[in-house]
Amino acid sequence: MINKFFEETNKIIESNLVLFILINLVVIFIFYLFNLSILFSVALALALDILFIIFKIFYIQYQFQVRKKALEVGLIDEVLKISSIPKKDIKLVFSKLINSNNKIISEEFLWAYKKIEKGHSLKDIFSILKKKYNSEILNRFLDLIITSVNTGSVSSQDYKNLAKTFLKSKELINDRKSLLLMQKYTIIFAGGLIVPGILGVIISLVKKLGEDVDLTLIGLNASTSLYSVAYYCSIIYIIEYVIISSIYLSLLEDESKNIIIYLILLLPVSLLIFFVSKFLL
């Protein structure tokens, strides 16, 4: 999972190299125009670069989910069509799928058929499709085809039952996924953007208050500034928030390994936005 994340990041950087250069040039221009500090300009450039990568990754995931959903919806119709075939000949099944009105199903099974024609095993090719989409309905459908080819014991009723079972559970699955997706993006935007940004602005306000607050009243040394206390407490809070958010997000996805990925994504972005927000006021 981690290797896949870095592979996607490298692809995004390579395919959008010109855009990254333009972003950095804009930041340099802002630095020159408003006489901002070099540190602020570098932090701003890094924040924009990372935010673009995160947005691109989420957009790619969104596109994949749309493609997956279209495949699953189309597959239900194809399963019902195949169930009407008197004899479940593998070539006839592939012919139905390749000529499907659903372009995704047509493309995927045309690719699978060509691979099988070249000598690849049916099981290996279907394993690739299973791994690619990680779809329950697709996995069960492919398993039915494999069982039909190996044993010939699959009946039309088995295909109909598969379609009925999926239709019954589909609504519940979609509701759960929508809820989890909303929770996921709320936590990501809150932990990565909103909370650090608000804390950064508050820190800049605290700095402008000066030394009027007596910190000895809360047990701190008189030489300690309110700004220093607020500054370091905010950083600690952001780090804790990101760690807790990463753990919770990984629990939502049932993937403990994703904790590292979310930490790698959220922690630098959160801290960069926090540092950048300090200069807004």
Task: Provide key terms for this protein.
281 residues; elongated; mainly alpha; 83% helix
Give the structure's gist in a few sentences.
It contains 10 helices and no strands. With 281 residues, the protein is an all-alpha fold. Helix 5 (103-117) packs antiparallel against helix 6 (122-133).
Q: How would you sum up this structure, described in words?
A:
By secondary structure, this protein is mainly alpha-helical. The chain has 10 helices and no strands. It has helices at 2-15, 17-34, 38-83, 90-98, 103-117, 122-133, 136-151, 156-209, 226-253, 258-277. Helix 5 (103-117) packs antiparallel against helix 6, helix 6 packs antiparallel against helix 7 (136-151) and helix 7 packs antiparallel against helix 8 (156-209). The longest helix is centred in the middle third of the chain and has 54 residues, at 156-209. The radius of gyration is 27 Å and the shape is elongated. Residues 218-224 have low confidence and may be disordered.
Write the layout of secondary structure elements.
Blueprint: H1 2-15, H2 17-34, H3 38-83, H4 90-98, H5 103-117, H6 122-133, H7 136-151, H8 156-209, H9 226-253, H10 258-277
Helix pairs in contact: 2-3, 3-8, 3-10, 5-6, 6-7, 7-8, 8-9, 8-10, 9-10
